[in-house]
């Protein structure tokens, strides 16, 4: 693993000058180069290969493996770098479980409904991008996402709190069996919203509305659209836990943005805008000299972030970028916040012997010495997402295919305009589809060749 890490990103640095401290947020080649550097650092934590899945070692749980591959799906999509494609595919397929719903017996001791949601986010991202699913023995990415949804709604429990799913699944893991949390229910909300758009099946839209209404009723989402952690079913969810974390704000934000795009209903557009405004108020600008820089306000200022919490900012970044694709009206605010945060994150990724290891607190103006997978993922998602405007938006019903082999790349002609693909629904009009940049594909290919060359030399 050390050899792999060194060969990948040492060669990438030599070929592209991808030191994070040199990031230019408005320069595509700079963003791609720095993202490649941080991606290599990130994947150095992963013990698997292109042909064999490996669980992340302690202190990382199975859910964060799903989150990692959601991040790497975005890396491939935004940068067009296919270095990790086989690793991603192998990992996603290795965890489908015996009933193809990501209920994995080896992880029954630690798998919760929120864990399942994060694997669902990754699987749906694969479906929405027509990511190749080569196995003929496993359902399509879309069907796998639907299976996860069905597993979650089967745990909707109305015996307390009027509904909701619990944090945990198995009684053998009692911590959280009587706790209903926003990440599990927000995960169900977002998955339902994305499936509604991906299938045009009203059942999914109905469930998304149901989960949203319930979340508001139990004050997981307040009148200002702040998202709180949860409540105990022992108290019938009457005593809200007002801890708040960036990732749950992002999860609900993206669900609302998807529904705004799918329904073209102003109610959902307003909710998405309100959730983004609440995110700006709660998770940015911790100090006067850190304007628009993201932080995890519940724990960073008092040094109480757990290993899990150190990855949360990355998911807010992921879903803010994705929300801007679904709702262009959100773009200006997203760009303002995440350009500043990406620059700060890059400045925090200056640790280690090569000056490429990422720290946790972006508002300190440099590397703070706190290292780990979560810190790498947060920086990666915030920086690679800078390319969101040049990436295709998620596909919708009628566009999603079960591909077993890659589709051939279209051959451009001088007169080609790269217009958005036509669809049967006018709902797609709210999503901007950027023109392809073939020069970027060429750069990715060159970097891939140089990386592989460096790897072979390292051998």
UniProtKB/TrEMBL annotation:
GO terms for molecular function: mannan endo-1,6-alpha-mannosidase activity. Residues 414-425 have a biased composition (Low complexity). Its EC number is 3.2.1.101. Residues 403-430 are annotated as: Disordered. It comes from the Eukaryota. It is an enzyme of class 3 (hydrolase). It catalyses: Random hydrolysis of (1->6)-alpha-D-mannosidic linkages in unbranched (1->6)-mannans. GO terms for biological process: carbohydrate catabolic process; fungal-type cell wall biogenesis. Coiled coil: none annotated. InterPro entries: 6-hairpin_glycosidase_sf, Glyco_hydro_76, Mannan-1_6-alpha_mannosidase. Keywords: Glycoprotein, Glycosidase, Hydrolase, Signal. Belongs to the glycosyl hydrolase 76 family. This is Mannan endo-1,6-alpha-mannosidase. The lineage of its organism: Eukaryota, Fungi, Dikarya, Ascomycota, Pezizomycotina.
